[in-house]
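Side project, low priority. Logging it here so it doesn't get lost.
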Amino acid sequence: MKYFSSLSPLLIAFVETALLGFLIGLEWHSFRRATSKDLGFGTTSTLTLLAVFGLGLAIVDSTLKVYGIGLLALGALLVLEYQQRLRTGDNLLLSTLIALLVYSFGPLALHGPLWLPILFVIVILLVLGEKPGIRRLSDAFRNEEAITLVKFFIMAGVILQLLPDQEIAPFISVTWSQVWLAVIVVSAISYFSYLAQTYFFPSRGVLLTGVLGGLYSSTAAIVVLGKRAHGISTAETRMIGAAIVLAMLMMYLRLWVMIVVLGHLETAVRLALPFSVAVVTSALIAWLMLRAELISSAPQSEAPPRHPLEFSTALLFAFLFVLFAGLTHFAVQHFGANGLHILSFMVGFTDIDPFILSLLDGKFHVSEAALEAAILIATGSNNLLKAGYAVALSRNPALYAAAGWLALTFLLSIGYAWVRLAG
């Protein structure tokens, strides 16, 4: 670093500009060769010299007036070149945009941070190199997905900024912004797992359904898998059992990530051991269930999942968040840690995410060990609920092993929590 700091900034900007222009030229040359016999405007040498030319004009006049005149001249030449291509039936604007972006490398390298033009080049290279994949994604992109994305931006970029950072009520020790931040974290995990399952893994197998479904709702995923196991062969049911175990595994990972993202590092450290034991053991059990089977990724006939990012879902989650915060405050105030643990057991038979997040964001007068025990009890009773769903919906003895492991995690969670409290 000391060596680079001794070099002239103009020399660094020149080398960076020429090198980045050369890289874009190489990729553009390869792209045109693959899509057309005619290279058209923008060979490797042309784009390299264009980048250096933009840098030279930016150096001549620090106000960038000369650079602006050069931009107008370049635009006029590109218009003439585009009119010429229109006569041959080539109406794509990609080469024109590439030329304008390369021309901007000089001022970016001269006046901006080092990483900015590099980031421009990375985006350009990815767009050119992955154009077939981008085209397939565009063809598969549904009209309603744009509205869904707008909803997510409204939730994360508008509503969160407008909410005050003050407690909702004296008996609810969480703030408005904490409630909505929890909603955004859960919605983001759900939404991105939905996108992965819908667009990147459309031909998903049973195992992938368990993994990705477990990211946004392990209970919902196990309900779907349990229904699917009803009345089918033992061999396929064994794979569904492994998917159920993997869905539960993803619940632990999802909860731990949410705890870390929301800034509760001490709690995350305390839960790292029991959660990691549950994850590793579940992965081993799933592998044992599958070792005698040939795992196939053949396309499934099931309908694509419906995304969980809806305002109604977000509002319901926020309501449950506040409700559980109030109930937790009441239980702690009147019954202490024992009341909190009884409430944790009861909440496990509903949706545990809002309860756990409200528990972490609240200022309850209980020890860290009591909070850790409450989270473990809630996850354990939730696994007991899932075991009941798996058995009742499938009515298939081949799922008893997976359901038995889910029920066993309830006992292990209760035992571990009791040991932590006793210690």
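Brief comment: The two ends are 51 Å apart (CA to CA).
Revisit when time allows.
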